[in-house]
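User: My collaborator sent over this chain with a note saying "see what the structure looks like." That's all I know about it. Can you take a look?
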Amino acid sequence: MGIDGDKSVDFFLLLDNILAEQVHNLPSCPVLKNFQQTVERRSVDSLLFLLEDGSREVLQMSVGLLFYTLQKNITEAVDPSSPAEKARKLMLYASHDVTLIPVLVALGTFDHKWPPYAADVTLELYEHRQSKEWFVRMSYHGEEQVVKGCRAGLCPLKEFLEVLSQYSVSPEEYNNLCSQMEGNQQTAS
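Assistant: Without extra context I'll predict from the sequence alone. Here is the result:
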C-alpha cells in the first residue's frame, strides 16, 4: 500500500473513506481500491479482536443498554395488560456500521463481512393466532437470520429474550461495569 513499516494504519478510517467514496460516487484513490478487501478484512479482524478480548463484558458495554431497551419494549408490547391503543407498532433505532457488528456478534449472526452501506437489522414480533404464543423474526440487510439459541428464523419469544439477557444491562449495571472496566485498565497500566 506504500506505507512505511513503522507507520501505524487506521484501517477503520481507510475503510470508511473507501466506502463513503463508493456510495457517493466520488473519485477514489486507485491504490486504496486495490486494497479494499485487505482493508475490510483488517477492520473486521481488529474489531473482532476488541470484542472477543474481554468477551461478555466488552459485548455488554457495546450492546447491553440497547438489549436492555429491546427486552423492555418487547416485554411491554406482549403484555396483555398494556392498553392496545398505546402500543407502538414501530420502534426505530439508528446506528453506524461499526455499531451493528457487536449486535450481530452478540446475536450469533455476524458473517465476518463489514456491513454494507445502509445495512439494517429488523426485529419483527409475531403472535400465533391460535396458540397466542409470541415469536421474533430477525433479518439482517433483508435476509432472515437464525439467532444463536434459536432453532429457526421464527424464534419463540422466550428463547430470543434469553439470548438478549446474556448481554443486557440496565443503566445502573452499565455504570458499574464501566467503572470496573476503567479500574481494570488503570491497574493494567
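A starting point for your reply to your collaborator: The first strand starts at residue 121 and ends at 127.
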